[in-house]
Batch of 3 targets.
Target 1
Amino acid sequence: MLHITELTKTFNGKTAVNKVSFDVKQPKMIGVIGRSGAGKSTLLRMLNCLTTASTGTISFNGEDVTGLRGAARRQWQSRCAMIFQQFNLVPRMDVVSNVLHGTLNRRATWATMFNLYPQDDIHKAIEILDRLGIAEQAPKRAEALSGGQQQRVAIARALMQDPDIILADEPIASLDPMNAQIVMDALRRIHEEDGRMVIANLHTLDTARRYCDRVIGMRDGRVVFDGTPDQLTTGV
Ligand code: ADP
Ligand code: ADP
């Protein structure tokens, strides 16, 4: 499925990700762990083509997706939708519009203003929100929601694209323990029920152990551990 070979990213002479290679043969739930600065975020951003790799390749189902541009890049980004620590919603826009935002990109604001969203898309958005337990929040502004609810809106926005892969960059780092659990449960369900691959950067080992099938440990830009949570005995 996903085949990553010697992926490297250098910023002004400093190597953030150093020859990272791994394969994902089935849609697993994968946790990437490691201290701050280990290169986790840069790795995910390269997978999503938010950052261009310096060297190395990423291929998905035999297709090279390294350093795509333009329409091909946008298409890839909808197949591997990303969620972020700070949710990255439009705070003053309502929840449904936020969910639909990704489907239309820049045109979304105008589409909402002039009620241009296709009814089917609106229904799909509400269904996804319902599945995540936040359908009743749909008409509210995103900024009126709790952090855990906002992250679920971001997950809904990702699901709206029907992605093969969900990339989550520290999805629970800004949340209290209860909301963190709700968000991780949601990601786990999406993996199990829909068969989507989830790759989540996590800063705690415990979370990775509890939710992930496979753990990739990074340190100084390199992979220093790659295995199941049971094989993980020491800190990374
Ligand atoms: P992590 O997500 O594990 O905390 P990052 O991928 O954010 O690690 O960062 C890895 C290294 O790359 C750090 O040393 C960081 O300072 C550096 N880095 C990340 N993004 C940039 C950037 N845009 N410009 C320069 N250096 C960066
Ligand atoms: P206020 O009542 O403080 O003026 P508004 O609700 O009118 O705030 O929105 C402020 C900004 O947020 C506007 O510039 C508008 O473009 C944007 N915005 C708010 N709601 C939406 C929406 N549903 N779709 C797109 N943009 C929105």
Target 2
Amino acid sequence: MPAHPVDPALVEAARAARRVVVFSGAGMSAESGIPTFRDARTGLWERFAPEQLASPEGWARDSGLVWAWYQWRTGLVRLVQPNAGHRAVAEWARHAHVQIVTQNVDDLHERAGSEVAAHLHGSLFSPRCSACGTAHPSDGGLDVEPTGPITPPRCTHCGGSVRPGAVWFGESLPTDAWERAENAVDACDLMVVVGTSGVVYPAAGLPLRAAESGTTVVEINPQPTDLTPYLQHSWRTTAAEGLPALVT
Ligand code: BV8
Ligand code: ZN
């Protein structure tokens, strides 16, 4: 039984919705065992704030440390499984028009069987050359937490350093992904916002854009967030409990 039983009106809204957007953040993957940005950090990482590592300044300061962090995170994702929330969204898309717009850089939606319309903040699995942009295959990351910096690989095309495929703080979002996200949000009649603190822009502006246009927006999060005051429904439950109950 979910911690907070679902409001039957939400189940009805989900059933009646013709075009759904699921907007996910790090909390979507928490029950798979992937720490969110706000979880307490341990080991090598406890003395670094993500904004220090997920930024061009962090890369310029110590690309080996940043590469090690992403290699560890890539390996962690590879070793875990999609949770019941990811699977419920994939099931929903089998009988309704559901588009996923995610801030997450993991591939758990895809591994649950979903297509993702937009990875707004890039992906762990698309490293690219920091100089010429050439895509390089991910080597699957590390099975253990690194104890220090790891020298990033060299670009096979120009010899530059290969960087993680994530969008860092201070970097623009991929234009094509942003446009797909805006189009999906403008066309939907229900937006389900799962596991995001709603603090990172411009992504966090998308639920507000939907709410302002009169679209029904449902937030699934065990905590209130910066978005809560602006959304019609905020359900204090988790992704893996709430989504299966919503998607009957
Ligand atoms: C840009 C990839 C401009 C990297 C990420 C002031 C106002 C507005 C904007 C700014 C500002 N100051 C600075 C900015 C810009 C900045 C920004 O928004 N900063 C914030 C901190 C204020 N934004 C940017 O820099 C963006 N780019 O603005 O470019 C520009 C324009 C032109 C030219 C140049 C530049 C780029 C931002 C992208 C950063 N990259 N990710 C990586 O992964 O390493 S963002 C990263 O952090 C995540 O993607 C996520 O979106 C975000 C927040 O992390 P978390 O809080 O952990 O995750 P989340 O928000 O999802 O929160 C977890 C939630 O889950 C919690 O609410 C929790 O309660 C809940 N939860 C926990 N367990 C569960 C759960 N929910 C459900 N079920 C559970 N089981
Ligand atoms: Zn290159």
Target 3
Amino acid sequence: LPLDERLKRRIIDGEKNGLEADLDAALQDRPALDIVNATLLDGMKVVGELFGSGQMQLPFVLQSAEVMKTAVAYLEPHMEKTDDEGKGTIVLATVRGDVHDIGKNLVDIILSNNGYNVVNLGIKQPVSAILQAAEEHKADVIGMSGLLVKSTVIMKENLEELNQRKMAADYPVILGGAALTRAYVEQDLHEIYEGEVRYARDAFEGLRLMDALIG
Ligand code: B1M
């Protein structure tokens, strides 16, 4: 198989052996972020399709996720970083009940590499923990990630909690994750939230939003 296909296959098959050598070879002619976006994420997409259609069982999805995480960790030191720092602080979390964190961690990498201070709380975070961290770290923005359909409902509840605690004006919120749609965030949630709420389709849109919100 050509290198690109082979890397994609490694994600789909959850095969770590030889991964680093292939990543080294790919780094010879492409930037690290391009490898993640154009190749590895394609592999995860196939995994999602196979799982969704019942052709792949959960333990194999987990293996694919592990290979993805290993690959991203290996590529991270090769990613471009700006010299900026201290551009602002975001508290980032996967919402309550949701364990998916690959996308959230990519957002962390992209924002950190571009001068933002990221307080990454991890997965399954109740709103109380997110709000506490936001106050403690004097966050400029709150970022929530979630991939399950039920997480989109939890995000709505979290925004309502911010309203109730009169914190909405202080915290613009960026939401991301595969189950969200732009319309749901920018129309439905925009209507209920008393602060700013924006949708990020991917980590780069997350970065653009951060720059727009506090830059
Ligand atoms: Co899960 N899972 N999973 N899973 N899983 C999905 C999400 C699913 C769509 C698969 C499917 O059925 N086709 C489906 C959800 C269906 C639904 O809700 N309607 C699903 C399911 C059902 C489940 C379980 C319930 C399965 C079960 O137990 N029976 C279970 C849930 C457990 C729980 O959360 N309580 C489960 C478990 C798992 C694993 C643990 C095996 C593993 C996760 C490992 C991990 O993350 N550490 C896993 C995986 C890997 C997936 C798929 C295949 C891939 C997700 C992924 O990492 N994508 C996924 C299929 C899919 O998404 N279509 C699926 C790559 C990642 C980079 O993309 O996170 O979307 P993503 O991030 C993107 C953007 O969304 C955006 O930026 C990133 C790209 O730049 N983004 C942000 C994300 N967050 C952002 C935040 C921002 C800005 C941008 O600012 C704050």
